[in-house]
Task: structure prediction
Amino acid sequence: MFLPPTAWSSELLADSYGEYLVAGLLADPLLKTTAAPVFDRAQTTLRQSNGVERDAYRRAQRAMAVRDRADYDRDLALRKFELAVQDAVGKNRNHPDYKRYFPSGLTAVVGAPMAAEQTYAGNRRLIEGFFRPSSARSDQQAGLASETPAQDATPPAPAPSR
Result:
């Protein structure tokens, strides 16, 4: 008798070989009432387990897709924020006000693990009142009005290095 390899999926084993085995047991007059019901219940349990596993896999795939989209949206928001900061400092990435928000540059933020990005992007004061000149210039001179007092704009901690 052919024995399927152990590497075959339980779904294939249940649907193909399991059905064959149960049909063979049902065809045998001695095993019809003893072994066939036991194997039939095992087949049913295996099918249900496979269904649960498939459903869990689908849910995990959907959750990953939602997470990936959220990561993309966060990266996009951070890129827009970085461009606004660049415009405010005359495209000078060495400017103290740029370094205040992106000490290691934009790539260090958008390339960081998602938890670090969430910490960085989650600072509402950073986003809402996103730019406070460190020099003596006023917000009006910098062209950026904000309701957030300068002392409330706390720069985030640098993204962890990889």
Residues 10-152 form one domain. The chain has one domain: 10-152. Confidence is low (pLDDT under 50) at residues 127-155.
